[in-house]
Design a protein that fits this description.
The protein is of the alpha/beta class. The protein is 37% helix and 21% strand. The radius of gyration is 16 Å and the shape is globular.
Length: 161
């Protein structure tokens, strides 16, 4: 049997220090492909590096919905986000992805997340959707499948798609 992991985050902190062993165990278990999904510029580049280092790893370049709008929404209230977010230029990252289209098997993870922030505003939802549409347009242009992230926005994701 051939096994494929279609959505992994091997660049995450929990794999630091033993990534070689993690990949080795996957290979021994019969995994033939691991699609490692980036979610921002830093993790996209790490996904690319991992795909260059390990034969079974393929990169997927993405923009986590909330990360992609961090430059527009700096005051998140007392609760804030679940993790620290560094703002980045969405259009610049889209250009990078397009330049590296031959280095990835998919675009993602991308989508809409209306739950990660407790009080997601309509303005934040609209901003996420704007980015989602931009990334979908690029995926279509470069003929790549997409890896969708949706939390509390499933119907809206389907409508946009």
């Amino acid at each position: 049997m051939k096994l494929v992991d279609v959505h992994a985050h091997l660049e995450g902190e929990k794999f630091e220090g033993d990534i070689d062993e993690v990949v080795s165990r996957a290979e021994k278990a019969g995994v033939k492909v691991v699609v490692n999904s980036g979610v921002n510029p830093e993790t996209n580049r790490k996904a690319l590096a991992l795909s260059e280092k390990y034969d079974i790893v393929r990169a997927s370049f993405g923009m986590y919905p909330v990360d992609a709008i961090a430059d527009r929404f700096n005051d998140f209230g007392e609760e804030g986000y679940l993790r620290e977010i560094e703002a980045y230029d969405v259009d610049g990252e889209l250009a990078w992805i397009e330049r590296h289209k031959d280095d990835c098997v998919a675009i993602g993870e991308i989508g809409l997340d209306f739950k990660v922030v407790e009080n997601t505003t309509d303005e934040m939802k609209a901003a996420q959707e704007e980015v989602f549409r931009k990334v979908l347009k690029l995926a279509k242009k470069i003929e790549k499948p997409v890896v969708i992230h949706s939390r509390g926005a499933e119907l809206r994701c389907f409508e946009v798609l």
